[in-house]
User: Which sequence fits this backbone?
């Protein structure tokens, strides 16, 4: 190969890898203090030291990233792209140090410079570009892809504001503040001023012959790329997460500008920037706002233009597109990619419609994350028609495909056709994005066995009849053991390493290796060490709560944790009603009786969507119940309750390792998978839960004797709801203990007389999520938990056996499944 420019020797002698001995690291950090930050030792604070350390680590990532991307360009492997509107990354520095294997050296070097690495890590703000499980899953999948040297890129949006910051007002209610995560420079992203695409909105589309059209007019906005490096664990392979920012095109509103109407020119440039300004904070409801649709199109159009440009650089015929490109759609949010790729092929690349459809349906894959009907995305036809006239035409044309195949297989079945159509009739008509996502993809998957079965039996039933069952399969979610064991619980990962006599890298890359712990479960010396790790993690959490909130947690109690988005289906209400029940029971006891009770600390955290009234009321109730309980001298040694504000990835990293038991108590059939359940178990916490989502597969792995199951099963739910609707029975009759709790709340025992009525009424009236049906067995399950905890040795054995059987839940396994069964991509690495 010919050297591209200048004096080859001058380049080559200057190009070197970075030295990673401690003096070189120190030199690099100090160099960044001096030049990048323009600071000095005497005015450097923790934040500055964090920034310098981050820039130094970043240098390593950039070199690995360059090499990996160069390698992909040369080798031309098939690549996969993960399109997700959410990436809940959390912090980067600790993860990067661990994946690079440089943590001990940076620790030493930073100490030499007079700082503590732990303090610097705390300076970093979370990258919180997601709502909950769906966004965190995307982050785990990026880690696993890079760690397994798979050519996978993520594509998303660079929101200026991530998920809102949650504050708790004096009366206990949730307040939202913006999350200005980019306020300090973000060292983990590289702005790509040269990677830009124009994205059109509005205008008109004129049909030509051959199913083609010309879309013109309207307005154009610029998409600019920001690249985030995703280092693999113990490998040079470093993948890319490309996030798009919206900007006005140069001369976006030149007309107004030239006419001297600067205000108007600025206003329209603001409207371009608005597209990527904020993450929508709704997790399970659709909002139907035009700006959200703009986000979705802006992102899919920029991503596909980028993917297309990369494909074209290969110089292959367009018919080979699916041999080089696989695209995973994370829920229906990126479904516009389907008509957009049709538009590119048909209108721009002159591919005949039918051939284009073949290529498109061989490129895309679709993951569904919920069967809750309110979460199924629909867009009004008039809105789509106005914003994306060409895509509306294409969606109508795809509808014709659906009509003809359904008509052929089920002649005259009008009702079936109406259910399967992309267009839902009504005023206005709506576009059903899940139907489009199903029709336009090679495969559809759910995220746990039960959920995938429900997808086949409910929302996709008609499509199973049409295509056959093989198009609809399951990939059970997973979590990355790098962040969710080694990073968040180093004491445990050290203990495991020393016990199994294996370097950490062995079990962090092959989580099934944890099974080796089974043979130590009965070893008293090991049990003691295991319990000591849990205890020190409780103290770490208590310390954190003490410094951030000024509260004193009893660390000699069982820690019972429920941390997740607030939602009726997740039933935080069941938990708080259970807590109140426990409190009332304690109050009924004599002091002597109380002394026999297992002391418990109940911890909640989670955000409610800002417009979700009942969920916000639940937070308010928890906070106010906590206020009364924690101040009650009779009970406070036996029961403490806390709502920790502003739940985040970083807070989860402190909470999860400290938990003895965690709650995953959704109404059966409603939680698609859950992933925190896996995180708790990996860290030796046990579960109390319903027979739902991945709880079921966890129990299959660890054995039912190690999980506290309760409640009705999925097949019963439909019948119970029907009964509630047509043969309602008052709570007093159906479940007296719960009725007592509701009445105490109603009567103002926890303050705020009257405000909780709307929440209580969701239980007293239809009780859609079946609290009245599950309350008794829930209380029974918690009693079994208490009894099991009394026999501490047995409990520790359960804890060890649980961790030992978590191999299946590594996101490495999930990504292998996608790579082999869906994307057809292979590992490849530089050198
Ligand atoms: C979300 O976090 C999940 C599903 C959604 O459906 C939306 C959001 Cl923001 C549209 C969660 C599921 O509730 C959870 O069970 C699952 O583990 C997670 O996605 C990842 O699949």
Assistant:
């Amino acid at each position: 190969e010919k050297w591209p420019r200048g004096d080859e020797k001058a380049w080559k002698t200057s190009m070197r890898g970075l030295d990673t001995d401690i003096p070189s690291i120190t030199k690099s950090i100090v160099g960044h203090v001096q030049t990048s930050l323009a600071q000095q030792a005497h005015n450097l604070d923790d934040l500055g030291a964090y920034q310098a350390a981050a820039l130094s680590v970043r240098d390593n990532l950039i070199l690995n990233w360059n090499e990996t991307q160069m390698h992909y360009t040369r080798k031309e492997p098939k690549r996969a792209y993960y399109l997700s509107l959410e990436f809940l990354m959390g912090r980067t520095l600790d993860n990067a140090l661990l994946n690079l294997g440089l943590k001990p050296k940076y620790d030493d070097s930073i100490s030499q410079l007079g700082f503590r690495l732990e303090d610097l890590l705390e300076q970093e703000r979370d990258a919180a570009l997601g709502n909950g499980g769906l966004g965190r899953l995307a982050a785990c999948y990026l880690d696993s892809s890079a760690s397994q040297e798979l050519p996978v890129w993520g594509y998303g949006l660079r929101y200026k504001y991530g998920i809102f910051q949650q504050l708790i007002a004096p009366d206990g209610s949730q307040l939202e503040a913006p999350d200005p995560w980019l306020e300090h420079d973000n060292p983990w992203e590289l702005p790509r001023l040269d990677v830009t695409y124009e994205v059109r909105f509005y205008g008109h589309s004129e049909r030509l012959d051959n199913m083609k059209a010309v879309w013109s007019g309207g307005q154009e906005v610029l998409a600019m790329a920001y690249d985030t490096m995703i280092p693999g664990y113990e490998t040079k392979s470093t993948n890319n997460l490309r996030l798009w920012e919206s900007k006005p095109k140069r001369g976006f509103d030149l007309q107004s500008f030239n006419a001297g109407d600067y205000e108007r020119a600025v206003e329209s440039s603001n409207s371009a920037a608005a597209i990527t300004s904020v993450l929508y904070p709704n997790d399970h409801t659709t909002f139907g706002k035009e700006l959200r649709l703009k986000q979705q199109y802006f992102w899919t159009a920029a991503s596909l233009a980028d993917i297309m440009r990369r494909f074209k650089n290969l110089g292959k015929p367009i018919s080979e597109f699916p041999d080089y490109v696989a695209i995973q759609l994370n829920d229906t949010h990126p479904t516009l990619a389907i008509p957009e790729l049709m538009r590119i092929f048909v209108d721009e690349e002159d591919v005949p419609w039918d051939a284009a459809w073949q290529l498109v349906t061989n490129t895309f894959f679709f993951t569904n994350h919920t069967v809750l009907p309110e979460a199924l995305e629909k867009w009004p036809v008039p809105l789509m028609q106005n914003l994306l006239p060409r895509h509306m035409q294409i969606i109508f044309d795809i509808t014709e495909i659906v009509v003809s195949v359904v008509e052929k297989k089920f002649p005259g079945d009008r009702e079936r056709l109406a259910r399967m159509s992309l267009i839902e009739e009504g005023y206005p008509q709506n576009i059903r994005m899940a139907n489009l996502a199903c029709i336009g993809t090679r495969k559809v998957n759910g995220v746990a066995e039960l959920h995938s079965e429900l997808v086949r039996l409910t929302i996709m039933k008609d499509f199973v009849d049409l295509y056959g069952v093989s198009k609809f399969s399951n990939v059970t979610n997973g979590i990355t053991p790098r962040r969710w064991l080694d990073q968040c619980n180093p004491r445990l990962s050290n203990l495991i390493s020393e016990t199994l006599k294996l370097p950490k890298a062995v079990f962090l890359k092959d989580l099934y290796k944890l099974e080796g712990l089974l043979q130590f479960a009965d070893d008293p010396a090991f049990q003691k060490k295991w319990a000591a790790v849990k205890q020190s993690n409780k103290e770490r959490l208590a310390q954190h709560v003490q410094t951030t909130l000024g509260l004193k947690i009893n660390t000699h109690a069982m820690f019972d944790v429920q941390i997740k988005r607030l939602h009726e289906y997740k039933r935080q209400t069941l938990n708080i009603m259970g807590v109140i029940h426990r409190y009332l029971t304690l109050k009924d006891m004599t002091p002597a009786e109380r002394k026999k009770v297992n002391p418990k600390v109940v911890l909640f955290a989670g955000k409610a969507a800002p417009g979700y009234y009942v969920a916000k009321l639940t937070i308010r109730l928890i906070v106010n119940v906590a206020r009364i309980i924690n101040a009650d001298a009779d009970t406070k040694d036996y029961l403490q309750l806390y709502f920790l504000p502003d739940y985040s990835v970083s807070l989860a990293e402190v909470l999860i390792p400290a938990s003895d038991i965690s709650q995953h108590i959704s109404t059966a059939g409603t939680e698609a998978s859950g992933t925190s359940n896996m995180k708790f178990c990996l860290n030796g916490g046990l579960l109390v839960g319903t027979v739902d989502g991945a709880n079921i597969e966890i129990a299959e792995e660890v054995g039912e004797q190690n999980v506290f199951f309760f409640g009705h099963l999925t097949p019963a739910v439909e019948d119970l709801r029907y009964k509630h609707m047509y043969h309602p029975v008052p709570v007093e009759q159906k479940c007296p203990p719960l009725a007592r709790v509701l009445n105490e709340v109603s009567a103002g025992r926890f303050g705020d007389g009257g405000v909780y009525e709307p929440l209580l009424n969701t239980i007293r009236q239809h009780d859609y999520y079946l609290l009245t049906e599950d309350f008794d067995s829930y209380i029974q399950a918690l009693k079994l938990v208490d009894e099991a905890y009394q026999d501490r040795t047995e409990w520790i054995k359960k804890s060890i056996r649980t961790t030992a059987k978590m191999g299946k839940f590594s996101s490495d396994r999930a990504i292998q499944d996608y790579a082999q069964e869906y994307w057809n991509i292979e590992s490849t690495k530089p050198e």
